[in-house]
Design a protein that fits this description.
With 432 residues, the protein is of the alpha/beta class. Helix content is 45%, strand content 17%. It is built from 13 helices and 12 strands. The strands form 2 sheets. The protein has a 6-stranded mixed beta sheet with strand order 3-4-5-2-1-6. It has a 6-stranded mixed beta sheet with strand order 8-9-7-10-11-12, with helices on both faces. Strand 3 and strand 4 form a beta hairpin. It is flat and about 80 Å long.
């Protein structure tokens, strides 16, 4: 018997409608204490809600889900009440006082969905990403995961590997029976197919992680090149202090943006120059370090030539001329954060470059996924090598393949992920 849990599932604060969700044993019976008897077992019911003294609280629409037909897999009731702070607070207090009814922990509704087989772990992670999605690319990536795209791939991989293992073990356990003795070709074909898929999926995780977490674009250049003014112009606000004094920017300033549907963090860095100022030296070193690790760099120059010997542009980096409003000229893209000249072209270039780096994204989106697949790949490689040595070591090959199956199963939470659950569900709100 599971506790009956409840929580506000909509945003806090005044609204036209707020949603309070209940899930667990006797959710319908418990709601009848507030809404009156004879609630339907599923469907909708418009009821007046009253406290234990019969005092009217609100009129609400109750959406009722039967056990096995809800998000959590349990009996669920969603109370859609008027969204005033007073109404919501009163209902939450009343629910807290009811027997066997308690406030949900963060992510507990989703955790119950996992425990009841309504979602697997990869889908739970996709749901978490969907809730956090800020851009269209993040939404699409998360929606695929929540819809079970990775889960379907894992299911096929496990099916093929289990078939391969069963063939190997049949030749071991029933060596005297009338069955094929050389299963190596079929086993190798099955495992090789999985390995090919894994290589593509592993390669795609790097792009998928950048989409999830966001790309970093560093604006670099000498002092007074117009970096902070450019950042402010792109951000549409005064995120960085600007002045004619060289060395004004001492630390890395970050601004989060949506560029072409991708999450991008713009970095305004300290001017790159040699200086005797100890604090400025620290800022310059930080600027070089962050710029070197960024996904893309925009170099602002006086004439299209990068002067800093310690940080040179790569092939994809953008070299531009800053402060074009003051008459600076050259062969590179001319920009002015003050007048706005060239900004549309710069944003388009950034979008094109980052979009190209996103093309390889598959369905696995997290470092955890990549590590598990890489480890599984190593076991599959070892198993294939053993199979090539002959039937004498086929039992060892089978053990390697079993390890690979176990690691792939961990992607969807089938085995060995208990230590991950607390971390994953802590990112959810109370109502999810």
């Amino acid at each position: 018997m599971s506790d009956l849990i409840f929580a506000l599932a909509s945003a806090k604060g005044r609204a036209g409608v707020s949603v309070i969700r209940l899930s667990g044993t006797d959710a319908i019976k418990t709601c009848e204490i507030l809404a009156g008897p004879n609630l339907p077992k599923r469907g909708r019911s418009l009821r007046k809600l009253r406290d234990s003294n019969g005092e009217y609280i609100d009129q609400a629409l109750l959406i009722i889900f039967a056990k096995g037909a809800s998000f959590t897999g349990e009996e669920v009731v969603e109370i859609q009440c008027h969204g005033s702070t007073a109404v919501v607070s009163a209902l939450l207090r009343l629910l807290a006082d009811l027997p066997n009814c308690r406030l949900a922990e963060p992510g507990e509704f989703t955790k119950r969905a996992l425990e009841n087989g309504e979602l697997d772990l990869a889908q739970v992670e996709g749901l978490a990403d969907l809730i956090e999605a800020e851009t269209e690319a993040q939404r699409r990536l998360a929606a695929r995961a929540m819809d079970g795209a990775l889960s379907e791939k894992v299911a096929q991989w496990r099916h093929d590997l289990i078939r391969a293992v069963s063939l190997i073990e049949a030749t071991i356990d029933f060596a005297d029976e009338d069955i094929p003795t050389d299963v190596t070709p079929e086993v190798t074909a099955l495992v090789t197919s999985v390995q090919t898929d894994l290589r593509a999926e592993i390669a795609g995780t790097f792009a998928a992680e950048r989409i999830r977490e966001g790309f970093e674009v560093a604006i670099v250049g000498p002092p007074n090149a117009g970096k902070s003014t450019l950042l402010n112009a792109l951000a549409g606000r005064d995120a960085a202090i600007t002045s004619e004094i060289a060395g004004t920017t001492r630390d890395v300033i970050e601004v989060r943006m949506d560029i072409g549907g991708l999450a991008v963090t713009l970095l305004d860095t300290a001017g790159l120059r040699e200086t005797d100022d100890t604090i400025e030296q620290i800022g310059v070193e930080r600027a070089r370090t962050r710029a070197a690790s960024a996904d893309l760099r925009v170099f602002l120059t006086e004439n299209g030539s990068v002067q800093d010997a310690k940080l040179q542009p790569t092939d994809d980096d953008i070299v531009a001329i800053g402060k074009s409003d003051l008459g600076a000229t050259g062969d590179a893209l001319a920009l002015s954060g003050k007048s706005g000249a060239g900004l549309d072209t710069l944003v388009a270039q950034i979008s094109t470059i980052l979009e190209s780096r996103s093309q390889g994204a598959q369905t696995a989106t997290r470092e955890r996924h990549r590590i598990a697949m890489q480890q599984a790949q190593s076991y599959l490689d070892a198993g294939v090598e053993l199979m090539a040595q002959g039937s004498e070591v086929s039992e060892l090959a089978s053990a390697e393949f079993h390890q690979g199956i176990s690691l792939l199963s961990s992607l969807i939470g089938a085995v060995g992920v208990e230590d991950l659950l607390d971390e994953i569900f802590s990112s959810f709100c109370l109502g999810k």
